[in-house]
Design brief:
Strand order of the largest sheet of chain A: 2-1-5-4-3
Keywords (chain B): DNA-binding, Phosphoprotein, Transcription, Transcription regulation, Two-component regulatory system
Oligomer: heterodimer
Strand content of chain B: 15-25%
Number of strands of chain B: 12
Number of helices of chain A: 9
Radius of gyration of chain A: 51 Å
Shape of chain A: rod-shaped
Strand order of the largest sheet of chain B: 2-1-3-4-5
CATH class of the largest domain in chain A: Alpha Beta
Protein name (chain B): DNA-binding response OmpR family regulator
Organism (chain B): Luteibacter rhizovicinus
Number of domains of chain A: 3
Number of helices of chain B: 8
CATH architecture of the largest domain in chain A: 2-Layer Sandwich
Pfam families (chain B): Response_reg, Trans_reg_C
CATH class of the largest domain in chain B: Alpha Beta
CATH topology of the largest domain in chain B: Rossmann fold
Structural class of chain A: alpha+beta
Largest interface: A-B, 29 and 22 residues
Helix content of chain B: 25-40%
Order of helices and strands of chain B: EHEHEHEHEHEEEEHEHHEE
GO molecular function (chain B): phosphorelay response regulator activity; transcription cis-regulatory region binding
CATH superfamily of the largest domain in chain A: Histidine kinase-like ATPase, C-terminal domain
Distance between the termini of chain A: 66 Å
Number of strands of chain A: 12
Number of domains of chain B: 2
Largest sheet of chain A: 5 strands, antiparallel
Radius of gyration of chain B: 19 Å
Distance between the termini of chain B: 25 Å
Order of helices and strands of chain A: HHHEEEEEHHHEHEEHEEHEE
Chain lengths: 450, 227
């Protein structure tokens, strides 16, 4: 048992604190009861002693002697010894054999001891100096009240000791169990820190605050693991997607070095290389743009943007491209004007990405509709193309994701993730669904901005 | 020869800019901080200024611009800014900038924009027609003619041609076209502009006549003014 560590555990400290608190409270309570009880007993005794003393003092000397003798007969066990002594302290009457030293020259109750039946017995007595010069002592055996007091004190100490033992044992148990849990958690964290992101903190049944905490941390770890996987995926994709153009670039340059002889041939190779580098740069710019938009700095430049204007412009912009592919591209709206707080250029980018994809993947002769549904706060791009399989709908929003059939078409796989970050910046939700046949991608926004 | 003042604190960037501008045929002066830039620009004699938005110390880029404009100087100013300051574009233009370019940029984009700024300055405000080689545009009736033959254009094609003709003989980048003709700012999807250009070419280069709009590889387009 690592005692220093145990001492530091919250459970142990809390248990000790409660033990201390409980002990203090009980001691105070006991002290109160003790003082009350003992005080009551003493007051009762003293009252009785004074009353008896007064009774006797008011009698004549002869009557007193008579009464004392009667009393002596009625109290053979020396439970309440009375006695009368002359001024020099000699015994005159009563069952108190001698005048105790403490009882002379005093007018208040005094404790004294006397030998009786071979034992030292405690008494409490009250002496009165009578007018005839005699001393009258009225006393009571206080062995029983003393015993009662002692019993009470002993009971208190016993109970206190038991409480202390059980409390300490409990504290140790609580501390040890919390120490074990913390140890387990620490171990798990250490494994996570060293790279095992699949590890989770142990969660105990039955809840509790520590369980709630570990539950939250585990949730955080889930997110972290997902993000790390995503980042890794993005890195892999970047490496993969950039390798192809870089290889082409390298190949072209090496070929030029080997074969080209005229200035024009070199010029052509350089121009090809510039194109490759340009497309690489474009990919990097797109990546940077996405993270810049993700950072949300452009929110500061938001203005009220008319969505129908943006959508009309996108459709007009892409019309020649659509015509070239013999596609019908239309803008359909429900004639209500909609303004949202946003960045017109980014919204144009988002919608044009969707239209661009639709044009890319819809076979010739198909239709593409850009719809603005002001009543349902939604805009959508619907095409008659092959659509996106349900399993891939979430993945296509990730950076560099390209579905297998699209690998052959030009593009950097960043389009839809750009749409996703622009949508998020505008508090819009993106949804991909079937248009049977075809694909429907909708952006919906909440009511507060319209 | 146009004289350009470049105010840029980063030595390497400044060298790149100065080289590009000198290659393009400008006469270039360089100031390394806002104070020096302001003094040089106030001294006069420059046709345009390339101004870094973020300059160390005071005044910074916007400070230089504001002071310059307060003295009544009309010289066109192109503001350069880091990518992260994209949202400050509006502030830069509001402070009196004429154009705004985010770093990193290609040299051709900078020179093309400077050409456009300088051209804009020399064009008299109340023009009613444009002429470039065989092409003629009546800005009031929006009528387009090539060698007297009327050509009918869609509104956007008309805007596109007008912009190219206003900058006849200069390289115009796709980004500039997208910004000026469509009114959106983005470096994405500019390849779609090629399709618009080819549509425009089909309309103005009838009967197999030589194309007036030339593609400049890797940069953009140029409309030649010669016959």
């Amino acid at each position: 048992m690592r005692l220093t560590e145990l001492r530091r555990t919250t459970g142990f400290r809390l248990a000790l604190m409660f033990l201390l608190l409980f002990g203090t409270c009980s001691s105070l309570l006991f002290a109160f009861v003790y003082w009350q009880t003992v005080g009551y007993m003493v007051r009762e005794q003293e009252g009785w002693l004074r009353r008896e003393s007064t009774n006797f003092s008011s009698l004549s000397t002869d009557d007193r002697m008579l009464r004392l003798r009667e009393h002596m007969r009625g109290d053979p066990g020396m439970r309440r010894p009375f006695g009368e002594f002359d001024a020099t302290g000699h015994w005159l009457a009563g069952n108190l054999p001698s005048l105790p030293v403490e009882m002379q020259q005093t007018d208040r109750p005094v404790n004294f001891h006397m030998m009786y039946a071979g034992a030292r017995v405690p008494f409490r007595g009250y002496s009165t100096h009578l007018p005839d010069g005699h001393w009258l002592v009225v006393a009571q055996n206080v062995h029983e009240p003393y015993e009662f007091e002692e019993l009470m004190v002993r009971a208190m100490f016993g109970a206190g000791l038991l409480t202390l033992i059980f409390g300490l044992a409990g504290a140790v148990a609580v501390g040890t169990s919390s120490m074990r849990r913390i140890d387990a958690i620490t171990l798990a964290i250490r494994r996570i820190v060293t790279g095992d992101l699949t590890e989770r903190l142990p969660v105990q049944r039955g809840g509790g605050d520590l369980s709630r905490l570990t539950h939250e941390v585990n949730g955080m770890l889930d997110d972290l693991e997902r993000l790390v996987h995503e980042v890794k995926g993005v890195c892999d994709s970047i490496a993969h997607d950039l390798r192809t153009p870089l290889t082409r670039l390298l190949g072209g340059l090496e070929r030029a070095l080997r074969r080209a002889s005229t200035v024009d041939e070199f010029r052509l190779s350089i121009a090809d290389a510039i194109d490759e580098v340009g497309s690489l740069l474009h990919t990097f710019n797109a990546l940077l743009r996405i993270s810049e938009i993700e950072a949300g700095a452009r929110r500061a430049g938001f203005t009220q943007v008319s969505l129908s204007t943006v959508l009309t412009d996108v459709v007009e912009f892409y019309q020649p491209l659509a015509e070239e592919k013999r596609l019908s591209l239309q803008f359909v709206d429900d004639a209500a004007s909609v303004a949202v707080a946003g960045d017109a250029s980014l919204l144009f980018d988002a919608v044009s990405n969707l239209v661009d994809n639709a044009i890319k993947f819809t076979p010739p002769g198909g239709t593409i509709q850009v719809r603005l549904d002001a009543a349902h706060r939604q805009l959508s791009v619907v095409d008659s193309g092959p659509g996106i399989p349900p399993g891939e709908r979430k993945a296509v929003l990730n950076r560099f994701h390209r579905s297998e059939p699209s690998r052959s078409t030009p593009g950097n796989g960043l389009g839809l993730s750009l749409v996703a970050v622009i949508a998020r910046l505008h508090d819009m939700t993106i949804e991909i669904s079937d248009a049977t046949p075809g694909c429907r991608i909708s952006l919906s926004w909440s009511g507060t901005e319209g | 020869m146009s004289r350009i003042l470049v105010v840029e604190d980063d030595a390497q960037t400044a060298t790149e800019i100065v080289d590009a501008l000198v290659d393009h045929g400008f006469s270039v002066d360089h100031a390394a901080d806002g104070r020096q830039g302001l003094l040089m620009s106030m001294a006069g004699g420059f046709d345009a200024m390339v101004l870094d938005r973020m300059l160390p110390g005071t005044p910074d880029g916007l400070g230089v611009l504001a002071t310059l404009r307060a003295t009544g100087a009309q010289m066109p100013v192109l503001i350069l800014s880091a990518l992260s300051a994209l949202d400050e574009r509006v502030r830069g233009l509001r402070a009196g900038g004429d154009d705004y370019l985010t770093k990193p940029f290609e040299a051709v984009e900078l020179t093309a924009r400077l050409d456009a700024l300088l051209r804009r300055r020399h064009v008299p405000g109340q023009q009613t027609s444009l002429r470039a080689g065989p092409l003629e545009i009546d800005l009031l009736t929006r009528g387009v003619r090539r060698e007297g033959e009327t050509i009918s254009l869609l509104p956007r094609e008309y805007d596109l041609l007008t912009f190219l003709m206003r900058h006849a003989g200069q390289v115009v980048t796709r980004t500039m076209l997208f910004e000026e003709v469509w009114g959106y700012r983005s470096e994405e999807r500019t390849n779609v502009i090629d399709v618009h250009i080819s549509k425009l070419r089909q309309k103005i280069d009838t009967d197999n006549r030589p194309s007036l709009i030339q593609t400049v590889r890797g940069s953009g387009y140029i409309l030649y003014a010669t016959d």
